[in-house]
Design a protein that fits this description.
Layout (H helix, E strand, L loop, with lengths): L1 E2 L12 E7 L13 H8 L17 H10 L3 H4 L5 E4 L4 E4 L11 H7 L6 E5 L2 H6 L12 E4 L17 H14 L4 E6 L1 H9 L4 H22 L7 E6 L5 E2 L7 H7 L5 E6 L2 E6 L5 H16 L4 E6 L13 H4 L13 E5 L17 E2 L11 E3 L21 E5 L1 H4 L8 E5 L25 E2 L21
Parallel strand pairs: 1-16, 2-7, 2-8, 5-6, 5-7, 6-18
Antiparallel strand pairs: 3-4, 8-15, 9-14, 10-11, 11-13, 12-13, 16-17
Length: 468
Amino acid sequence: MALAGCLLIPRGTEARMILIVVDGLDAREVLDDVTPTLARAWREARWCPNARSLAVMPTRTNSNHATLVTGVTPAAHGITGNAVWDFEMGRPRKLGTASDLLTETIFTLAHHAGRGLRTAVAVGKPKLGAMFSADGDRQLAPDDLWDGRAASDSSRDEITGYAYDGTTLAAARAFLEHDAPDFLFVNLSDVDRVSHGWGPRSSQAVETRRRTDAAVSAFVAWLTARSDWSSTTIVITADHGFDTMTNHAFRFDDVLADNHLTRLVTVGDGGMGHVYLRAPAGPVRDARALSAARRLALAQPAIAEALYRRPNRADGGTAHSLARAHPDWHLEHPRVGDLVLVAKPGYQIVDGSSEEAKLSGNHGGPDEFPSSCSAGRRPKHPEIVTASPRRTSDAPCRLAWVSPRHSGSTVAPSLRPIAVASCTGCVLRTSFPPQPPNPLRHRNVRHVHFTRLRQGSSRACHNSPTRQ
């Protein structure tokens, strides 16, 4: 799920791209009787009907949103999950602020391109607002930014602070009506929030998917009635699927402590765990400690895989490494840890700092890849081009977005999806050759607080106990 060069459309064409992420929408749950709009669009897509693709690992909100706005995998952008061990603080911390991103976002590149391109963001999750914010001159924010913090108390969940989908889409509409962005990024959080709190197969989650589908349908109907619809491309996707938690949360730190491996520490990340050597003692001793930890992990009923980030001479060299077992995961970054644990379905890996042990649904492992995506232009309803974050045996493709001038295609006047057998992403800088500054370009980033939003929110199960 990578966007590469999606702002290459010449300004004179007045083309617009809208990317909507339905957070946590599992492709297996895109059904005619629950999500008729998305199901019909997916099935009838002219570009890629019923296409399958992959999210990045781990299948977490932060890592996949980082990929969507940078065009590269976690090994490049550095967001290797929702959490990381902070060696300076000596404890886990959240991973996903603007300063954590190691590559430029589409918002930064759009500004540096000097073409007068305007970008906007409306996201239900405040943490995504933090990810897309500015980091000095290194990372630039979109021209207009709205997140759940700007929603009224009645328009957001009181526990998580996430804005309801109706409110987020109202913010997106306001941007389109008043600011005319060339690229608009939208995150809808209701499906994810309720699936965490009640489980993805619960009646509450089913009803939430139905309401979100209706909200998206109304938004698309509003778009198609606009005079600029013929120059608008809309893409609807998701960042991950979901798994029902049927077992107690697993704390690997307890196993390490019982076996006197106190130099190692684990950070839980849903369906994945990151094990770090917090007190290195030399290559030989470190290799043996990690080897012992791997043997202990594989003996646990909660663990499906335990893989080294780097070859371990004490345990088969490269035989049990991430690069050898899963070369398409692209997780060879120090932030992922020295040993990576993958939970079996129905389990989640937690640490002492986490509240995730309370969750009824979670994600992070390779079984949570299913999600859905749509892309369309000019038709009466959008076209689904799935970006299904699911690892399957039928060799699913990874979806990328390219400019027709790079692909040689004349099929679509704006962007078109292509399936590639293997893709690590494309640093977006290569898609934006430097141009002279535009003296008419006025950059004044606004953190928008709309005083009049239509609050047609999906409020089902607003008290769901989740924060991911």
